[in-house]
Amino acid sequence: MNTKHENAAEHHAAKRHWLNSHEAGYHKAMGNRQVQMIAIGGAIGTGLFLGAGARLQMAGPALALVYLVCGIFSFFILRALGELVLHRPRAAASSLMQGSSSVKKPLTWPAGCTSLTGR
């Protein structure tokens, strides 16, 4: 019985050593600035949620309908974008790739730069 206990203790010690060896270089403490940013984010999020409550209450059940419609639109837009990217898989920016097949060659580069920079 003592052998089983020793084997279990050795196994536990080896496991602990392995887990600790993979944490080298990581800090296990947060700085003052990090804690402040978390607190500010929590306060802002709570304030926005409580501030929007009256407006959400005025919207009533229409809010659920609008949320559903926007979700459906987003689903179909993302699905269409996925089909466009999978149509011709290449290791390039999707806007440049799609532009090369649907836009004349001189317009491909400006179209890609416009969509990548957002201007």
TrEMBL record:
Domain Amino acid permease/ SLC12A, residue spans: 35-100
Signal peptide, first to last residue: none
Family matches, as InterPro entries: AA-permease/SLC12A_dom, Amino_acid_permease_CS
Membrane-spanning intervals of the chain: 37-56, 62-81
Topology within the bilayer: Multi-pass membrane protein
Keywords: Amino-acid transport, Cell membrane, Membrane, Transmembrane, Transmembrane helix, Transport
Family: Belongs to the amino acid-polyamine-organocation (APC) superfamily. Amino acid transporter (AAT) (TC 2.A.3.1) family.
Name assigned to this protein: L-asparagine permease
Species per Swiss-Prot/TrEMBL record: Klebsiella pneumoniae
Gene name as annotated: pheP_1
